[in-house]
Amino acid sequence: MDLGLSDRVYVVTGASRGLGRACAELLVAEGARLVLCARDDDELNVTAAALGGPEHAIAVSGDIGQPGIETCLVAAAIARYGRLDGGLISVGGPPPGTVMDSDDGAWRMAFEQTFLGPLRMARTIAKLASREGGSIVLVLSTSVKQPQDGLALSNGLRPGLAMAAKSLANELGPRNVRVNGILPARIDTDRVRELDAASGRPEDIRRQHEARIPLGRYGEPLEFARPAVFLLSPAASFVTGTMLAVDGGSSQGI
User: 9-246: what fold?
Assistant: First the structure.
């Protein structure tokens, strides 16, 4: 299938590793041009070079939890490539913890990083998306559908961001700007390995999670990237307001 991504331009945040990098690699392979963002400047520049350099991807380091970076990213896309067709908005998950153990400061910090930053990014992309229409995909979590043990901050904030994305899809539909969310569970990334390792017995934790996944294993980053890139592409032109779980069947809700 031709996804229609040739020469289209997207912002990809969280792009230096994990799910964001997997999506960036696939987007470039399909002919898209990218503005990459992550907090680690060195890793980000390595990623941009690996993707072919400025003809295919440029790096703008920053933290989308900080106001103003969204304007820099959108301006960089238009200045370098002359257009903007959407964005994949991925942020690292907030720290693990329980509701009882997470103080007000932790909730405020997580709100800025996990909720408000992505929402600012989505609004800014939507304002300047191409007249041909645009596509925004937010990388959320299966905590949108059901709570995840030990991830209270994510459980509290991701469902709200998903509903804000659904509302945004309604608002932007008349302008032909689509907004969708994608909900990964246990994908074999550095972030998930870190969560498993925090238990002190990562192999046991992994086996326990795999036992609850109908497909019996963790997903690979490319298995996440394929549906995410499809949702970004013109091939998904009649899909908006959708929350797609990529979780090997582990979510128990519909």
Answer: Rossmann fold (3.40.50)
